[in-house]
Amino acid sequence: MTRNSGLEGLLRTVKGGVELEVHVKPRSRQTSLVLEGGCLTFYTEEPPLRGRANASLVKHLSRLLGVPRSRVLIVSGLTGRVKRVRIEAPRETVLERLGMVVGNG
Hints:
Elements: H1 5-8, E1 11-14, E2 17-25, E3 32-36, E4 39-43, H2 52-65, E5 72-76, E6 82-87, H3 91-102
Parallel strand pairs: 2-4
Antiparallel strand pairs: 1-2, 2-6, 3-4, 5-6
């Protein structure tokens, strides 16, 4: 469980799933999700126009976590760089899959 210990504090259990905070950095060279300084940071090639960066975040998390896009919801921060995202999936599943991708940062 030590592999996911850095991620454990980033997830908040809510009814039906978990929520996490993600810092979004649009117009990046590539699309990736990383753990930086104890925060989840999502780099996307998309610009912050007409919801394109938000759509990229939802699509990326959906693929990464193996859940339908309809189960990944941005619940706050739609127009800002810091977003709170609700994922309708078991906490253990989210921790395991995030841990495989972002590691310990």
